[in-house]
Amino acid sequence: MKKNISIIRLLAVFCLFSVFLCGCATKVSTLPKKRVVSQGTKTKVWKSKKESGKFISGPVRYSKLPDQASTLAARRLSVQSQSMRTWRELGPQIRKSIEYVQRNPSGGLALRRNELRLTWGQLRKSLEDLERLLPRLDRNPELLGKYFVWYELQSGAEMTGYYTPVIDASLTKTGPYKYPVYRLPPDLRKARPGQTHPWSEQLRKAYRVENGKILPYHSRRAIDIDKVLAGRGLEVAWLKDPVDLFYMHVQGGGVLRLPDGRLRTAVFSGSNGRSFKGLGSIMLHSGVLKKSQLSREKIKAWLLNNPRQMWELMAKNESYIFFKVTRGQPQAAIGKPLKSMVSLATDPQLIPLGSIVGFRTDIYPKRGQPSRRVNGIGLAQDTGKAIKGTRLDYYIGTGNQFKYPAHHLKKQVPVYLLISKSALRR
Question: Transmembrane region positions (predicted)?
Answer without folding.
Answer: none
